[in-house]
Design a protein that fits this description.
Bound molecules: iron/sulfur cluster
Distance between the termini: 9 Å
Strand order of the largest sheet: 3-8-9-2-10-1-11-12-13
CATH topology of the largest domain: Rossmann fold
Strand content: 25-35%
Low-confidence stretches: none
CATH superfamily of the largest domain: P-loop containing nucleotide triphosphate hydrolases
Helix content: 25-40%
Number of helices: 11
Shape: elongated
CATH architecture of the largest domain: 3-Layer(aba) Sandwich
Radius of gyration: 22 Å
CATH class of the largest domain: Alpha Beta
Length: 293
């Protein structure tokens, strides 16, 4: 089962939950593979303790960038009009491609009457798999600086995680999604089985959670949620409950042990199960068991 941990807004504790659940599932449910799908800011391995043994690594060259042959170009400017990504600008009467913005979609070449546009392959980033100190095999991606194909890279990270899971005969994969509702998040959710939305008791976080839920509904996947730092605004819990209309699998209180476990790279699931956050995590894990078995 592919379990995606996501939040409609950044900074809600998504990686905290994904890393600790991965460790608990690995220990108590016959193994797990974790995947860091936040390829613009990957930190799942750090959240699981930082120490790692490299298993495999490869560069990904899947991005395409358009370029114009000015000897062929007749300055009709159809390419400028068709580019949805604002990657072709008009400079001194000529179309100029801004490579950083080019998504390689091919629309400009399709409309070009002079066959003046060609493509070259560029580096998308790197994906690599490690075994963390907690024994969780984890696949992660690293998008090229300024890279724009994060959805593709997320897809490849998930494929790599599935390959490792098949090889190890492991059933469960935990995916730490990027925050928000953009392309990498959609790439994380597509075809996955279960979404755990992490929400904090604030209107902004609930709004993000609702947007995420809409996407999940279109994928017809199972959805549940966890409230993080629930005790910071307990009055708001009713609003979350009624607006999401989902089964909640746990509420985690604010615990100063969490930020210090992060900065010390000592995951709560290994070093702090007797803390307030650790006890709540245990409950989340126990409630999750019925969804994954
Ligand atoms: S569509 Fe082709 S011919 Fe027209 S301006 Fe663009 S590159 Fe030049
Ligand atoms: S390939 Fe797509 S994104 Fe790139 S310049 Fe052409 S139309 Fe724009």
């Amino acid at each position: 089962m592919e379990i995606v941990v996501a939040s409609g807004k950044g900074g809600t504790g998504k990686t905290f939950l994904a890393s600790n659940l991965a460790i608990l599932i690995n220990e108590r449910l016959d193994g797990v593979v974790a995947a860091d799908a936040d390829v613009e800011a990957p930190d799942l391995v750090l959240a699981m303790g930082g120490e790692r043994r490299l298993l495999r690594s490869r560069e990904i060259w899947e991005s395409m960038k358009a370029s114009i042959d000015y000897k062929l170009c007749n300055r009709c400017l159809r390419c400028v009009d068709v580019c949805m990504f604002d990657a072709i600008r008009l400079v001194d009467g000529e179309p100029r491609i801004i490579e950083e913005f080019c998504e390689g979609c091919g629309a400009c070449a399709h409309v070009c009457p002079a066959n003046a546009i060609s493509f070259r392959r560029t580096r998308t980033g790197r994906i690599y798999s490690v075994e963390t100190a907690a024994g969780v095999k984890t696949t992660t991606g690293d998008l090229e600086i300024g890279g724009r194909n994060s959805g593709d890279l997320v897809y490849l990270v998930r494929e790599e995680a599935k390959e490792i899971a098949r090889g190890d005969h492991v059933k469960n994969i935990v995916i730490d999604s990027a925050p928000g509702i953009g392309c990498p998040v959609i790439s994380s959710l597509s075809g996955a089985d279960l979404l755990i939305i992490v929400v904090e008791p604030t209107p902004q976080s609930l709004n993000g959670a609702k947007r995420l839920l809409k996407i999940a509904e279109s994928f017809k996947m199972k959805v549940t949620y966890v409230v993080n730092k629930f005790d910071l605004n307990e009055e708001f819990l009713k609003a979350i409950d009624s607006e999401l209309g989902l089964e909640c699998i746990g509420k985690i209180p604010y615990d100063s042990e969490v930020p210090s476990s992060y900065s010390m790279m000592r995951p709560i699931a290994i070093h702090g199960m007797d803390t307030k956050a650790g006890k709540a995590l245990k409950e989340v894990f126990e409630n999750l068991e019925s969804w994954v078995t």
